[in-house]
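User: Continuing from earlier, I have the next pair ready.

Assistant: Great, send them over.

User: Here they are, in order.

Assistant: Folding the first of the pair now:
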Amino acid sequence: MNDVIVVGSGLAALSFIDALDENRTVLLFTKDRVDDHNSRLAQGGVCYSFHEDDHGESHMSDTYEAGSCMGDREIIRKMIEKSHGLIQSYLDDGMIFDRNGQNELAYGLEGAHSIPRILHAGGDRTGEMMTRFFLDRLKNRAVEIHEGHTVIDIMTDGENGAKGVVAMDEYGNARRYPSREVVLATGGYSGLFTPNSGASETMGTGHILALRAGARLRHMEMVQFHPTLLGSRNRTHGLVSEAVRGAGAVIVNDDGERIMDTVHPLKDLAPRDVTSLEVYRQERKGHRCHLDIGRIADFKGRFPGIYETAQRYFPAEMKCAKIPVTTGAHYTMGGVMAGIDGWTGIPGLRVIGEAAGTNFHGANRLASNSLLEALVTGSEAALAVNGTERHIHDDIAPVMPEIPYLDPSLCDAILNEVTETIGFTRSGEELKRMLDKVQALLDQAEPRRTDLGGWERYCKIMTFYSMIHGCLQREETRGCHNRIDFPEKNEELRNQEIQIVMKGEELIAERVENQREAQKLLY
């Protein structure tokens, strides 16, 4: 029996394995290749605030404010404080971040940050370089990797918790894999939207696995849209890092107007929710938006990956120092309710990285806090597992899971409306219409053994359904959640969160009061 099963292969998964005791055996499942994940695409970098005069207090404040004051202040403090020693340990072990002419760490500035605090590697290849760093360290570890495998069920034994998974290979063959611990590091669900900034068209499914195993979801309505995906609404080619605007680029429309000058005091470095919404509004008016990079000296040298991609697809625009951009789904703040060590309340089941809803980000993520969260939750989960020894018996009956079979054509019709229904703006009338439509689809579904296509459809529909519930119940506009029928913040709702739980095959949304703000203040 394996000690730990890890689902996913991004930086959260890799940092978890890296911090795990070497005598622990690990079985890793990933849908694609082990190096094919969204962490690899990270351009901007990772926040590191230990060098600051206040030892990270302003970083905590920026995180809380960017999250529209909905994040958990104590979680914010713990996450950032733990990141300091962790990132320093990676530096000590040879992780190479970019340095300036004085051989000092070079800190970049990005949106909603009060000062430069973002570390980069390879210019705009931070995710790629960090992935390589961890994979090199794991070569001699006892890790068995199963590429091209999709986990479709977490095996549980009542109050005894998780006891392994059921995984299906690319040919549709399913098999049970027992283990003492299951760690989900499957990423978020922004792949549900079109366009999105992800590595593939698939969507992380760990939140649905955990939901079916008895865990709760929170903040499913909170999806961050990145303001500068490279390309147009019809076709995108990755994203253009916020670090480009930190280096001096500005967003202009096709009339040459700087669109952010009158929208927010930070202008082009406003929080992502603000900037994305303005780009969206410009597009609704019929404008195209571009990044004007004319103010950046040696753009090719500072951002080699972005330059190469933009030059390949838009050589004419690049001659004018302009990069066409649009908005697209980028990051999901919602996910499985979990602590910074991945604890879900279910013995043997932890969720880390973007798949986890730790309430670190609140209603909108601060730029470059995602890699920080991946590293900290991965490391903390490993330390927690190192300190426990679960003894389980593999006595679960060999029954393969059944899930509701959903008609493919009806699913496609519904999923084509995702971005319009719960994208940049939401309305109660449209949400209720779509809720009834999805409910009708689920009502006529019959449980049966699934295949890969059926599992993917089910996960997308249930994710959409969970998000509709969250969007409906949050009757305010806050962060990335914009209700056109409730256009203002409602401070009575700031400490409330919409939690999703399953009872049998029924999905239930509950409004829960969070008392965290009565606790110690950060500043």
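And the other member of the pair:
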Amino acid sequence: MFEIKDDFLAAGQLLETALSAVPGIRHVKALDDLAEIDKTNHTPSLFYLYYGEQLKESAYAGANTLLTQTWLVILAERKGSKTAGKNIAATIRAIAGKMTGDAGPWQRVNTPIKPRYTSGHAFYPLAVTCQMKFKGALT
């Protein structure tokens, strides 16, 4: 199980490593704001962002916590692309059930957002979770 040390969002880098192995993807990037996704010029691209966590259980008065982080992965394609379905399948294969370093296995969960279509692009969201532990300070 992945243990969070200094960087609470460290699993994002491990997720990026897994996403970078998806064949045919031109660009993989972390997002801070979903609005940034509209500015993409390179497709097909994968974007990922932290979506929150669920606390599982705590010990030692809450100093040690098991949690599950949720990450969104969004495939950006040109509207009308013939490869969108293949790229979605390849993305799922690259992360679902896989370990990346100490993190994982990444598990698919229901996506909290729907696909979105603009005049030039289509955005296909996926959501994955990863269980972790976090040790706080004991005073």
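Worth noting for the second one:
The helical segments are 11-19, 84-95. Strands lie at 2-4, 27-30, 45-59, 64-78, 107-109, 116-117, 121-135.
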